Amino acid sequence: MKSILLALLSFVFATTSFAQKTAPGPIPIYPVPYEMPSEENIKEVLHRIRKYYEATSSQTIVDSKTGERITDFATYNPQAIPSDGFSGEWSYTHGVVLSAFDYITKVTGDETFFAHNTRFYNYVVDNLSYFHKNDARKPGDKLGTWGRILHFEALDDCGSIGAAMIKTYLKNKNSNYLPVINRVDEHVSKNQYRLPDGTLARNRPQYQSIWADDLYMSVPFLANMGVLTGNKKYFDDAARQLLQMGNRLYVPEKELFDHGWSVTSGNYDPRFYWGRANGWTLMAMAELLSVLPEKHKDRDKILHLYRSMVRSLANSQDGTGFWHNLLDKPDTYVETSCTAMFTYAIAKGINEGWVSHVYGPVALTGWNAVKTQVLENGAVEGTVEGTTFAHDNTYYYHRGASVNATHGYGPVLYAGAEMIRLLQNDKLEIQQAKPNAINSTFHFILKSEWPKK
Question: What is the pTM of this model?
Fold first, then answer.
């Protein structure tokens, strides 16, 4: 009996000793700094990205064989193409960056960001006629970094960058932009394939497919056309796209959007909660809610989708502040672009009063994670490459990530701008976590709820 008692005591002692050695200490060790960001630091990050991004392209017309700049436009050179580089592209990812530059200037008053918009769009419209007059390309053909600018075929070709063009026009009033804006409108409103109920769709990869990505490729443009023209039909179409795509893609039990849906699989479509697809969805909602009339019949329905997604995302955020490439699969890698998108959307929701201020720490820790992905030279790493609407987990699990995946730059810029607004929000008091404390966290307090001191 005595030997059994001694054996039990030895086991308890050994187990306790092991637990003491392996359990975390009383002071948390955060893998990403759990700290209060400053406006100055955020602005420094934004400028670092801008300088890197702008330096990627000379924004000139060059000979594709020699690489030499073309300056004589009297005679057409069949080898002429726009120069390489992110900041010279006519692409949906550049459209996000341009919209973010416009937004940063509005938030901070710093015109160096918006100056890039005018420079880029002037570069496009000043040279586009040279290619139009000598257009031997067939529909589907691409023009260097300007893609299918001569013949739009998909929402990717024009929607996002068209939205940013409207924003730029509303500020600089360059009337040479209007023919291009009208061509984008013609494609989005009339030429893009739609289902019988008017929902924007693609015939890839399956016949009659809906992609969550297309919400950002269409809704911001339609919303901004509503601002530009004052015509209610654009707001109605934008809201219709969100709700009708939501009817097929939004999963109430998850409070998230499936990446894609097709008529073929219908009610039994396989579901994949890809991070960036949900980011595109939330950013599209934010764009529309920012300009949609307060009494619009669909506003409350869209707000419900926004709020429910934010609730779900708060729960699925990783302990590092990031979100995963597949939101419900924590063994997939943490990913930059969706983390930036969610950080922006949650901070935006708080600032506009669309979601509760209690989500403030979710946005704050999201930004702290995002800024770790901005390299010293301003490049943004950890962004998943362009991703098709797929039907197996293996594909999504193994998508590569790269600084050359430009999908991350605009969202990080947007997130920084909205975090500046959040720090400046005079309706809130931010109680900061104490450094090196055993039990301390961030609390965002709505001042109007509390008795005046």
Answer: 0.94
